[in-house]
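Can you give me the bound-state structure? Components:
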Amino acid sequence: MTSLLEVKDLTMRFGGLTAVDTLNFKVEKGTIHGLIGPNGAGKTTTFNMISGFYTPSAGEVLLRGENIAGLPMHEVARRGVVRTFQHSTLFAELTVLENALVGTHMPFRPNLFAAIFGWDKDARNGAEARAREALTFFGLADVGHEHAGDLSHGHQRALGMAVAYASHPDIVLLDEPFTGMNPEETKHMMGLMKQLCSDGITILLVEHDMQAIMGLCDNITCMSFGKFLAEGGPAEIRNHPAVIEAYLGGARHVA
Amino acid sequence: MRNIFIWTVIAAILFALPNLLSFSQQEVLVFLTINILVVASYRLLTLTGEWSLGHVVIMGVGAYASAMLTKSSGLYVPLGIVMGGVVAGLTALALSYPLFRMKGFYFLIGSFAAGEIIRLLWKRFREPFGGTKGIKGIDPMPDFSVGFYDFDFFEPTSYFYFSAIVVAICLWILWRIEKSPIGLTFQAVHWQDKLAQASGVNLRAYRTLAFVIASGFAGIAGALLAHYIGTINPNSFDVEVMVFVLTWAIVGGTSTFYGPILGCVVLTILNEVVLRELGLEQTRPLIYGLILILSILFMPNGLESIVQKFTRQKERRSLRPEEAK
Amino acid sequence: MIELLAQTGLNAVYAASYISLVAVGLVLIFGVMGVINFAHGELFMAGAYVVVALYAQRFVPFFIAVAAGLVFVGLLGLLMERALFRPLRDNPLGGLVASIGFLMILQALAVMGFGVRMEYIPPVTQEVIAFSDKVRLPISRLYVIIAAVVMLSLLWYFLKRTRFGWALRASAQDPQAAALQGISVTLTAKIAMFIGAGFAGLAGALTAPLVSVNPYMGHSIIVTAFIVIIVGGVGSLEGAVLASIVYAFVHTFVTTFYDGVIADITGLMLMLIVLIVKPTGLFGSADRA
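Here's the bound-state model for the whole set.
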């Protein structure tokens, strides 16, 4: 059986620097998979290659066996792989509801002539219902009319996920979803992610918050200096000598 | 119900308006009506965050297309005007392949270059474009009667009514597009193109769509102009006109649908009516330039920001009684 | 035929000289201030009118009039910096519009002061270097070439070898980092505006006796300058000079062998192709889009 997502010999070179070097790992359907490693390990670069933001220098990204490496980002998204971005990458000038509505672009594709003549009432209602559903799920139903740029940091992170969730993804790539959240928010968000997972959405995440990673993930891939280091369940990774070495030897202290 | 009332009043004012004006002011009114469509269509493109310097040339493409089609093949003028829009839209589609390899500043300059090339082609090829002298004796709109009103298109008033109806329909379509999921997607492309793309939006397709629609309506505006003034040449659509469109949009503000229209109306009245009436013919560009600088310095968000401030105050005032309960 | 080629080549060198003076100024302003100065062509025009006012009407020696043109237009640049670009530092589109407003004011002032008709400027010198019967270089054109070479060399020395030049380049690359390094953004902006505008004024003043001086002469030079800075790469001064030479040769030769409009089209096509293939320009690497 093929995995939902498989990364094969993935390599990214920037000039003379190899940011990711022949990386291999598999993400199984219905699991939460963590990608960890010290700063500069190439996690975000890996994310960018999977989501189509970068074209890999070499290697393959297999989605249900199909190679999607090098496809433009919207083509990757249309195949069910939807990502969030680091920091608060949102449509800050639009309202929270409008942000979520953009997320419904794929399930409810706009049509020019229907839009002019008002024949798209069903689609618009459907999109709005879906957007509100996504906002409610992430606890943003009350702030729908506010500008996304005015939200608190934790709410902005949640909205980033709501936009991704609104598009009915098969697999979401979360880039440091807990950054800027207080412990309570983190805990709440972890609960939501588990719920997403039990709804059949596969999650791949990059995160620095070790407690969150350990409490959340079924499987963890650890990388260091662009290379694969170790893989396994949380307990295995926690006690893996190479992982401990990488974190203690690296610049960043394990949180 | 209240809306219908407001629109009826506006229609009545527009109907009465030309009768209150002098002949030359009536002419200005026709140009103003056409320019409103130019600047409103320009805004649709700016929704995606791209600023073109070729919009006026594209408008000229519509003018040339309609003028040539009605002249050579005897096409009915209203159909020619529609075809002007179609040809302008198709031209934009063709231009979008090279132009949308660029963004931002590069698109601005690229669109300028593409526009200048088109203008130079008109200049260089007397067949079929008429060279520097352009096209003269363009068919006027044929007169017709709608029972209660006889359209006589040598009268600016008649042409004002006709163009006002055409422009109103176009504005309605532009408004519908802006307020639709398509308009929202345009804005998404503007504010965070990467996030929009991650949501499955094909950026290039949407940029092209906005460019083609905006150009199509600019083409209709150009055709309206051509059949009114009866003669067009490459200099009717040069950078100076583009600069005017740009300043209308920026002085008016581009965050609302009415902002650019407001800018167009206010600056046109200022430039064509007030300064002319004051007898400041020679210093007109000087004062216009000063106004431009002052408005961008002291009103960076455009005239619309003043309107927004006003309406917000009104909203607050109307809220107060309820709070008191 | 060879003589025709040689003569056209000389014409191209002359064109490259004044184009590069204008274009380098435009690049300098864009690099340091991040503003596209639409009024740059009118600064060129203003330089030409200084020569009209001083040399043609008041019989001031030509080179003093030219120097006055440089200084006067440089001061106009400082005025633009203070009145327009400094308050609009965070609003590049606003800077563009303001420069359009300034353009209209300069044009209107020229019309009011001198009228719209073409100005007659007596030739500075009738002397010609004759390489052969058909290959001739008027001395007045040689002045332009020499001035361009000298001024651009001075600028190059200033930018690469002095502390001010270093500060200027630093703030062109990264204004915030430069400010953190203790470089005064306002001071570098002033220097860039004075030099950038002054060069345009110099070019206008020097070429005044050789072209038709009128209030709308800035139009064609600004189009040329845009093409040149795009082809050369928007942030690159060396690129602007090289692109000026490329453009001047292409344009002059096409004008000689076909006609002026085809030459204009060729120039614009050249720019479009560069934009499509390498949007950062032939010689540029910094992306400021």
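A couple of observations. Chain B touches chain C through 39 residues (CB under 8 Å). The first strand of chain B starts at residue 144 and ends at 145.
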